[in-house]
Amino acid sequence: MPDEKHIADNEEDVSSYPSLPTHIAVIMDGNGRWAKRHGLPRISGHRRGLESVRTMVKACADYKIPYLTLFAFSSENWRRPPAEVNLLMDLFANALEQKARRLHENNVCLRIVGDTSRFSPKIRMLIQRAETLTRNNDGLKLTIAANYGGRWDVTQACQRIARDAAAGNLKAEDVTEDTIAQCLATSFLPEPDLFIRTGGERRVSNFLLWQLAYTELYFTETLWPAFDGEEFEQALASFAKRERRFGRTGDQIVNQRQIRNA
Ligand code: FPP
Description:
This protein has helices spanning 4-9, 31-37, 42-62, 82-105, 121-134, 150-166, 177-183, 229-241, 250-261; strands spanning 23-27, 67-74, 109-113, 141-148, 194-197, 216-219. By secondary structure, the chain is of the alpha/beta class. It has one domain (19-261): Decaprenyl diphosphate synthase-like (Undecaprenyl pyrophosphate synthetase). The chain has a six-stranded parallel β-sheet, with helices on both faces. The model is unreliable at 1-17 (pLDDT under 50). Residues 28-33, 46, 49-50, 53, 70, 72, 77, 91-92, 95, 144, 199, 224 line the site of farnesyl diphosphate (FPP).
């Protein structure tokens, strides 16, 4: 067992009992069911979902949470009825067009991750424009995962590494976890501390598969359009109670805290 000195030396490695997460990642599920319960078409649920995005962005900015990543459209969402896919694309395009300036005024830096090659030229142009407009902002880093899949991300990282190796720039034995992390679409982000999924399902659904390895998971029955400031605070309160051990024992974490507080 490591002695106290050893634990103290490694103090930088671990943050136990953190009060606030640095990076929150969200699966915004339940828009369709919310609409159905209110006798509305599914797209109304997505529109209301966009309102919850606004609430969440504001709450993160108020709490000074530096990173928020939202799963807006998965690689698998193309399988939905074409009419819903088209409406989601319109909503995405309108949001990029109409909200980018407001995000910029609020010092938010917006990034889109995912295979954007499948989007229309108009959406690709709006993505580029919004990212360029907000790129120097040092407030909330808001990342939207669009046409994103965790397996796609790991696959494209492997392809980049294989190309580097084939070009003679990298040896197989030099490939480390860091090499992979640096090739992921989210390489500019720290790993999420807190994952929230609304809508009652308890799955990760091919979101940030590599990145969620040590993330605290929080599931709520609340449907995304009903996820408000109070719900967000409940998720934060749950997170604040978690003991993050990163492979260590509970006793090590307690010792470490005592040393830190001495
Ligand atoms: C899941 O609900 C939600 C989506 C697939 C789309 C998420 C989109 C938004 C919240 C609005 C747009 C956001 C941005 C950032 C532009 P679901 O349709 O699977 O709901 P269900 O499980 O009740 O059917």
